[in-house]
Amino acid sequence: MLNKKTVIMIMLVSFLGTIVVANVLGFWSMSVEEGVSGDTLLIEVSKKYQIPLEEIYAYWKIPSSVSPRATVSDAKAVAGFSTGQFKAWVAAKTAVPELKQVEEVATSELTLEIKGSTTLQQISDTYKIPLDVIFTKWKLSKMISPNTPLKELKDGYGFTMEEFKAWVAETRKK
After folding, report:
1. 162 and 128 in one domain?
2. Could you tell me the residue range of the domain that residue 43 belongs to?
């Protein structure tokens, strides 16, 4: 007769062995495929969704100094886009069903990603609004650097962050 510990070990090995065999035969996967996330490497996006790195870098204005082994989060910190916007763009480029669901979320994130630390240049690049349009609408002095954050402008030029966000969302729709 087998003792209790031996029976438990046999059951555990059998269970884990079944999982390993099912994985090897392709009946079950131990990895969860989540598509594009902030932790996804740019090179992985390029390979998985067959989008040339050059196209990713050009569209999102990612500096060439950013490595292809950088994560989407690393690139967005430098180039000023949101992960939701990036997912939506990949979905549109590839028509990958798993990413389609984020397309509407990314569109609604347009105003959510604008913070006081966001610069005029980031607004222009991220939302494809020319700097001269921003300067004209908000009557900003041409002496202001495009790298000036909104929090340094809003009080002096008489607008609130909510007004600015709403304007960006409306302008983006046109």
Report:
1. yes
2. 32-108
26 and 47 assigned to the same domain: no
Residues 43 and 25 in one domain: no
Residues 58, 45 share a domain? yes
Residue type for position 120: L
| Single pTM value for the model | 0.41
Q: What's phi and psi for 144, nearest 5 deg? A: -75, 135
Per-residue pLDDT of 103-129, as tens digits, reads 444 444 443 578 888 899 988 888 888
Mean pLDDT of 9-20: 80
Pair 21, 60 in one domain? no
Q: Is residue 39 part of a domain?
A: yes
Give phi and psi for 52, each to the nearest 5.
Answer: -55, 140
Distance CA 160, CA 150 (A): 9
Rounded alpha-carbon distances, angstroms, from residue 42 to 59, 70, 78, 87, 137: 13, 6, 13, 12, 35
Q: Find tokens 């884990």 and name the residue.
A: 16
